[in-house]
Amino acid sequence: MFISLEDETGIANAVCPPMYFEKHRLTITQEPSLVIDGKLQNIAGVIHIRVEDIKPLRETDLPAGTSHDFR
Length: 71
Known about the structure:
This protein is an alpha+beta fold. It is built from two helices and four strands; from the N terminus they run ββααββ. The chain has a four-stranded mixed sheet, with no helix packed on it. Strand 1 and strand 2 (10-15) form a beta hairpin.
């Protein structure tokens, strides 16, 4: 399964192996924000992250501060 990630620099895909997806299906499909850890691959300018761990991103995990407007 692929999870598309996008920020101000472009798009990357997180590649999630089928067995990992089945084990963590509810987190992946129902959490509004995720923390994805894994190995970065950049092949011919195409960026992928090979998923090693996925967990929910909680508001309490974020540093306090003001937001940044990228416009």
